[in-house]
Amino acid sequence: MAQPPKSDSTEPTGGRLRTYVAIGVVLAVLTAVEIRIPYWFAGDQPLIVTWLLIGAMVKAGFVMLYYMHLKFDNRVYSGIVLLALVLMGVFLTLLVFATMTGSPAV
Amino acid sequence: MTEATMGAAAQQTTGMSDLPPRKLGVWLFLGSEIVFFSALIFTYILLRITSPNWPTFAQTSEVLNIPVTAVNTFLLILSSVAVVLALEAAHRGSRRGLVGWLTATLILGMTFLSIQAYEYNQLINVEGLTLTKTPIKGTDPCFGTTFFTMTGFHGLHVLGGVLTLVIVLVKARRGLYPKENHLGVELFGLYWHFVDVVWIILFVLAYLM
Questions:
Q1: Cβ contacts of residue A66 below 8 Å, gap of 6+?
Q2: Among A69, B49, B68, B71, which residue has the least CB neighbours within 10 Å?
Q3: Å from B160 to nearest chain A CA?
């Protein structure tokens, strides 16, 4: 008979709730800051792109590590995410190479 | 062969006895979704950096309703918080809390879709931005193509999530997610959080850059 899935964390419920709500607040604040970045650094596209990408990665990281429990869960799940990202890295490299050299798609 | 023997044989073959098969399946599905959305995003990036006349933020901000979309982004983040609180309620064995937070998620998700539908209507019928043309003179029409392709596929994923949530909510109201086995809630949560992660990236790329 299949065993019921184990709890993801041994941290007390109240502590987890506070963490989740705190992360939600952080995500909202980061979003509010993100919206202003194109206006704060108007005309400096590299700076805008840099800060926006950093902000997006931080937010995505919080959601994946805490809300999706990757930080606490079996490493196999993180491995699946990393594998997908590596595959896309290979795809992007080939795409950029094909575009810049004018070569037909590999 | 008894069930115990079959279980032991499976553990020896896979070496991943701690992984619920359904959860592994959902993560593999999410891995394929990462590949899918990455392909869309990378294609957008490549089209943009190789285009000589891609519209600037100053130009696109005249067409795209950034304040409304920002509100939508907040709603989606709030819905992710609601989902994780629903899962916590399930952990505690609180059916009322589970149903309450899932209902909140459903309302937020449907609001997101409604706002996006309103936005699409404004863009297409008022601003003149479509899949094949842009109202910003002298700029690359691929802006509209990539905008609607990326946000459209994301919207479809949100719709799929909302439809799944209806099923999960009905089951939760019937008490089918007890404290001992609420994996279904967790699996839905994984999908919904992933949809949120995709929007976090798309919002920045399509609206703010």
A1: A19, A20, A23
A2: B49
A3: 19
When pLDDT is cut at 50, 70 and 90, the band that residue B14 belongs to is very low
Prediction ipTM score: 0.85
Q: What is the rounded (10 degree) CA torsion for B128, B134, B138, B142?
A: -170
3-state secondary structure of A54: helix
Size of interface A-B (CB pairs under 8 A): 126
Instruction: Give A104 to chain B, closest Cα distance, Å.
Output: 15
**Which residues, 6+ apart, have CB-to-CB distance to B17 below 8 Å?**
B10, B11
Dist CA B205 CA B56 (whole Å): 12
Question: pLDDT tens-digit profile of B27-86?
Answer: 999 999 999 999 999 999 989 988 999 999 999 999 999 999 999 999 999 999 999 999
Question: Among residues of chain B, what percentage have pLDDT more than 90?
Answer: 86
B140 shares contact with chain A (CB less than 8 Å): no
Q: What is the pTM of this model?
A: 0.87
- Angle among Cα B133, B134, B137 to the nearest 5 degrees reads 120
Report d(CA B25, CA B13) in Å as an integer.
Answer: 17
- d(C-alpha A81, C-alpha B190), whole Å: 13
Residue A54 and residue B182: Cα distance in Å, rounded?
A: 35
Residue found by looking up tokens 């959305």 in the block: B37
- Which of 57-76 (A) contact B at CB < 8 A? 59-60, 63-64, 67-68, 74, 76
Residue B174 has which token pair? 């019937």
